[in-house]
């Protein structure tokens, strides 16, 4: 059995089966999800998944060092491409957030070290019984969001950060009847 939210789309199911909730420690992947989760705000995740490959191409493989150098010409290029969410504030936020991301890498050695410190270095078991039990925010997402905003990150919020924490496996929110819940939990032991 799978989490019910992913049913009905092979793209969604593949994402659920192979990525969602798996702990991520690679900074480029963590940056990718930060950009994508911010772009998703107000939209459905499936919309972003359908645009993901184009994002990877246009965002230079989500290399934060390259994204941090984007100028007005690059913003206009992104604004004219239907393969990304064409909302100027989200695009500008992704560039700003790349700069802030690099600052955190310098301060903590990696963004991964910074992020995982908030969770005590280990994934958190969300212990979700059913899809109805899923939350939109938590104390952890509130604290992380507040710290990121203090450091200058933009176009985030506790709900976006909570989704991010789920996506990158800081929180295992697969429902208890989902086959991935136990697989991920066992891989962390």
Describe the structure.
The longest helix has 21 residues, at 88-108. 58% of the residues lie in helices and 2% in strands. The radius of gyration is 16 Å and the shape is globular. The protein is mainly alpha-helical and 189 residues long. A two-stranded parallel ribbon has the order 1-2. The protein has 10 helices and 2 strands, in the order αααααααβααβα.
Low-confidence stretches: none
Shape: globular
The CATH class is Mainly Alpha
Question: Which fold name corresponds to the CATH topology?
Answer: Endonuclease III, domain 1
- Name the strands of the widest sheet in spatial order: 1-2
- Percent helix range: 55-70%
CATH-derived architecture: Orthogonal Bundle
In short:
With 189 residues, the chain is mainly alpha-helical. 58% of the residues lie in helices and 2% in strands.
Secondary structure: elements and pairs:
Layout: H1 10-18, H2 27-40, H3 45-58, H4 64-67, H5 72-79, H6 88-108, H7 111-118, E1 124-125, H8 139-150, H9 158-167, E2 171-172, H10 179-187
Parallel strand pairs: 1-2
Helix pairs in contact: 2-3, 2-6, 2-9, 6-7, 8-9
For the structure shown, list the relevant keywords.
mainly alpha, globular, Endonuclease III, domain 1, 2 strands
């Amino acid at each position: 059995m799978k989490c019910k939210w992913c049913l009905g789309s092979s793209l969604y199911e593949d994402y659920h089966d192979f990525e969602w909730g798996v702990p991520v420690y690679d900074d480029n992947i963590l940056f990718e999800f930060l950009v994508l989760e911010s772009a998703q705000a107000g939209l459905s995740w499936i919309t972003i998944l359908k645009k993901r490959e184009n994002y990877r191409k246009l965002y230079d493989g989500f290399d934060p060092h390259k994204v941090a150098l984007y100028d007005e010409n690059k913003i206009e290029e992104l604004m004219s491409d239907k393969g990304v969410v064409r909302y100027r504030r989200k695009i500008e936020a992704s560039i700003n957030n790349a700069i802030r991301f690099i600052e955190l890498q310098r301060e903590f050695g990696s963004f991964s070290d910074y992020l995982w410190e908030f969770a005590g270095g280990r994934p958190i078991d969300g212990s979700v019984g059913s899809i109805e039990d899923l939350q939109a925010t938590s104390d952890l997402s509130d604290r992380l969001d507040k710290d990121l905003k203090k450091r200058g990150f933009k176009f985030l919020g506790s709900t976006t950060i909570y989704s991010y924490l789920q996506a990158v496996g800081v929180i295992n929110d697969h429902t208890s009847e989902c086959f991935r819940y136990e697989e991920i939990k066992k891989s962390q032991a």
